[in-house]
Write a structure and sequence with these properties.
Length: about 110
């Protein structure tokens, strides 16, 4: 399912501001890299309007500022390595720079 232009522009705004939407009630998700098999099922399943999951070298990571906390990636994961991240930390500049370079696409 394709995201609406409005939803994609909201994602673009979150990328530009490097902030998480304040109205999201659920905390973001995180991937436990020691349990992940790097199958990219979560990346392919993440709704385009969030586009919160990226390959980062040998790891797959969730950018908390882009993650609404929806369960789609959890449902896609064959090894159950995605958890709620109540204590998330801001994304580092290196990953934001990668995201900004690829922001023209849908992740």
């Amino acid at each position: 399912m394709k995201a609406s232009p409005t939803a994609l522009s909201a994602r673009t705004r979150r990328i530009a501001e490097r902030t998480r939407t304040e109205t999201w009630k659920k905390p973001p998700r995180r991937i436990e890299t020691s349990e992940c098999i790097t199958c990219d099922s979560c990346l392919r399943g993440c709704p385009a309007e969030f586009g919160a999951i990226f390959d980062r070298g040998l790891d797959v990571v969730i950018v908390p500022e882009l993650c609404s906390g929806c369960p789609v990636c959890v449902l896609e994961c064959p090894v159950d390595c995605i958890y709620v991240d109540e204590d998330w930390t801001p994304t580092d500049d290196a990953l934001w720079n990668h995201i900004e370079l690829t922001a023209g696409g849908t992740s």
